[in-house]
Write a structure and sequence with these properties.
The protein has 191 residues and is an all-alpha fold. It is built from ten helices and no strands. It has two domains: 6-51, Homeodomain-like (Arc Repressor Mutant, subunit A), CATH 1.10.10.60; 55-190. The protein has helices at 6-25, 33-40, 44-50, 54-73, 78-83, 86-98, 101-108, 113-134, 139-163, 171-190. The longest helix has 25 residues, at 139-163. Pfam families: TetR_N.
Length: 191
């Protein structure tokens, strides 16, 4: 449910920020409503006015991340991206670098894998729709290609992020690997 009530929005933003702050240093199972509400500066009753559980709050954050990544996918037609794959990859790396360590943890930590899987499933649907807008593929082929592309890109980003000196990945190396792996794999669908 979308609201325009500024108090509700402030409370939800405070809880989301508190979750992001706690997620950087805490495993998911260690985050409690008590430490979440304390970090947000609200009481437990207020939390339960907005959410039934921490899972619901994390799902909302996962959906926000999905929407932001979906916006990146929608910036260019997939035919254009296929011929210039760096377009999306640069935007994806910019997104990942601009966001907090919590969002990266949500995407790449084993402890938050349930939420990463949610993001991946939703992005697969978004990308499959975009693929079908550019190519005459069956839904099954579009979903398989989309899953392949999303999964490989996230997996390679996770790998390069953990290998990165100083926390910043070598964008060009990452892009070369993603392009090589992804374009080879999907070329049989798109050609």
């Amino acid at each position: 449910m979308t609201t325009t009530d500024k108090r509700v929005l402030r409370t939800q933003q405070a809880l989301t920020q508190a979750l992001e702050d706690l997620a950087v240093h805490h495993d998911y199972q260690d985050i409690t409503v008590t430490n979440l509400t304390k970090a947000a500066g609200i009481n437990r009753k207020t939390f339960y006015l907005h959410y039934n559980s921490i899972d619901e709050l994390v799902n909302q954050l996962a959906d926000q991340v999905t929407q932001q990544l979906a916006a990146i996918i929608h910036q260019h037609a997939i035919k254009t991206v296929y011929h210039h794959p760096g377009l999306l990859l640069d935007d994806f790396v910019d997104f990942a670098e601009a966001h907090s360590a919590a969002v990266k943890r949500l995407l790449f930590s084993d402890d938050y894998s349930r939420f990463a899987n949610r993001i991946e499933r939703q992005l697969t649907q978004v990308l499959a729709d975009a693929i079908q807008d550019s190519y005459s593929l069956s839904r099954q082929d579009a979903l398989i290609a989309a899953h392949f592309l999303i999964h490989n890109t996230l997996s390679l980003f996770s790998y390069f992020s953990t290998q990165a000196a100083g926390g910043k990945i070598d964008r060009d190396v990452f892009k070369r690997y993603v392009e090589r792996l992804n374009l080879t794999g999907v070329s049989t669908f798109f050609n």
